[in-house]
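ESCALATION

Customer reports they have been waiting on this structure for their group meeting. Please prioritize. Original submission:
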Amino acid sequence: MQHTIKVNDTAFQVHTDGAGSPLVLVHGFPMDHHMWDSVVPMLAQQHTVITPDLRGFGGSGGFCEIAPMERFADDLIAILDQMDITEPITFAGLSMGGYIGWQMWKRHADRLARLILLDTRAAGDDEIQARARRVNAEGVLANGMSGVPAAMLPKLLSEATREHRPDVVAMLTEIILRQDPRGVAAAQRGMAQRADVTGWLAEIDLPVLVLCGEADSISPVAEMQGFANQLPEGQFVVIPAAGHMPPVENPAATSDAILAFCQGLPA
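Update from on-call: job pushed to the front of the queue and completed.
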């Protein structure tokens, strides 16, 4: 079901499916809620699955010059409030969605039952990475989104997916091309200034599942396992046959790991 949720002067597009305890799936960059389409049917058998379009992405408005991860987190809480969802949620975020997940814990820990971090990082950008994000932000504002899929898909998808899954390549290309450059630029600037959260890890006192595609080159297995090991209640799972996008590349294994974790089982 599609909802338009108004928070102050901003309209957010939010989709809900299924019934049960709330599971919020937060998309990565530069995408929208459709990146979760392949896992929602499985997850919705046991949960109320909530898939929002973040500020400036998909069907949501709220364009701004810089979209900090803190603001995305606060937006999500405001959306949940408008939906009268007071029960603690399971939050799952991929890549940029994971950056938002850290802020959900820092700012709104009382609203979380558990946290799922997919193909993301705890470390902040160094100055070279941050500068590249700011340059890319200016590039999409000047030139639009047409060149973004060719630049990003080799990093987002495993080589096997790119060679043998043209349907996946086409689907992600379509999602990326329809994003508004204003939202993409704001998120790039927000990610460039995001916090390094490695000092928070030992304090995160709720169950956390860390998922990583086995062929992820953006947030590699060794890096993700390294920060997962520092989480007091962390579990770490490698998703086979996937790069940076396990919910798209291997939705069955991704769904199985999430459902097991939400049931309190080893993922």
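Sent to customer with the following note: The first helix runs from residue 40 to 43.
Escalation resolved.
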